[in-house]
Specification:
By secondary structure, the chain is of the alpha/beta class. The protein has one domain: Ribokinase (UDP-N-acetylmuramoyl-L-alanine:D-glutamate ligase), CATH 3.40.1190. 43% of the residues lie in helices and 20% in strands. The chain is built from twelve helices and 13 strands. The strands form two sheets. The chain has a nine-stranded mixed sheet with strand order 5-4-1-8-9-10-11-12-13, with helices on both faces. Helix 1 packs across helix 10, helix 4 runs parallel beside helix 6 and helix 10 runs antiparallel to helix 11. The chain is globular and about 50 Å long. The model has no long low-confidence stretch (mean pLDDT 92).
Length: 321
Amino acid sequence: MADIAIIGEVMLELSPLSDKNFALGVSGDTYNSACTLAGLGINTTYITSLGDGKSANIVRHDADQRGVHLLEPKTVINKSPGLYMINNDATGERFFDYWRSDSAASYLFNNEGLLVPMLKQIENHNYIYLSGITLALMSESCRSKLYLFLMDYRKQGGKVIFDPNYRPKLWSGKATALKAINEILMYVDIYLPGFEEEEILFNAKSADDVTQRLLTIEADEIVIKNGPQNCLLLTNNQMKNIEITPSTAVVDTTGAGDTFNGGYIGARLSGLSAIDSIKFSAKAASQILRIKGGVLQSAQLSALKESLDHITNSTENNQNE
């Protein structure tokens, strides 16, 4: 079974129970994907920093319970995890307030002396996954070191997966985000953008606009998410429209794209085709939409793993007949 290393920030999450009451959880875009992957039986390592104190230990306990192996700096950082609060409108669409600028992870991603030795520890993993949020938290010098590492990593046969996950508040400006995203796309094998990001960042007006732009990048496999709409798959210079079944009874859209990514990567690493992986990951994303918070519950992940195992076994049996 292939393994994957993920680079990002884990945060404490406040999810509303009522106007003034919130549930404390553990979340973060790439961490949500990591939990999904680990729940699907994929060996998952997560590079981050949590610092010290009770809040850091809450996150460590959560990761341990979910089977996500945390890889932190050996030097203890006297800081804490970041925090964010979710608010939802009547349709379940989410809005965030963040407290992360002085988090332990932000400190790590702005310190070459800490980050580079950690990257060396994952050079033998089959896959590396990160997002635009990860890039936004990094200093320009750390991003440059990351790109050099990814270039060498791919020369050794490693595969890089990237979701731009554009959050304007995290960047100094759109131009800075575009520069960073365009630079990393030189080293990406599987690209998982959303159609909305293609509209905002690259002025796409249609699926044809998206296709024409993405044909110019080097990624071998591109999946364009579009909320409840069908997904687009671009491989071998061909675009395919993959039909999905939209979720009903949406409670909270937090973590939908992250869960989709985790489901898609997990299915691909388990041997499913790109098309079958899209259908499986859409099913996973539909489940996170029905609950509060950004991470699927253990029972949901167990059911998804059973479903994935069944699909994988059926596919293998059909190929052997």
